[in-house]
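Sequence in, structure out.
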Amino acid sequence: MGKGLAWLNGEEIGRYWPTESSKHDECVQQCDYRGKFSPNKCSTGCGEPTQRWYHVPRSWFKPSGNILVIFEEKGGDPAEIRFSRRKTTGVCALVSEDHPSFEPKSSDKYGIQDYKNIAILQLKCPINTRISTVKFASFGTPSGTCGSYTMSDCHDPSSISVVEKVCLNKNECMVELIEENFNKGLCPGTIKKLAVEAACS
């Protein structure tokens, strides 16, 4: 398709315009937003189409008789459009110890809450599934992205056992990046991260 707008059963999917990003941009293998901001700080997919997939909520579909309306401005073949059902079989999460979550620590008699400033990694499987396996877990300086995380020389060997203890057989879980769970004395002077990949079934 070229350029236009799409609707499914009266719900607007949005505009599409699969232009290609510049192959001359400076792309990165791993995104890190820390530090000074710049518009091209986390560029990826240089020289590739800017968008191939469009998320359509499952609730927009009918059991049958679905109507897809395409307003095409440049010409294209709508017969090549396909809907694919995406089934989530795993979840990933990556959190840095310097990116804390603010969780209530206590509440007084007036309902005023005191907050603890700690980093928390959260995992959540689809409805009616549970975390069955922890495929990867590393507290330290792991690299890569979901599905291809790798550990480095800076790694807490108890990472997997800690995550398994908190998360196995649960639909969702939260792992706190605290001294009681991980060796925060690893690699002094280095900001550490926790990367986790788990399977849902």
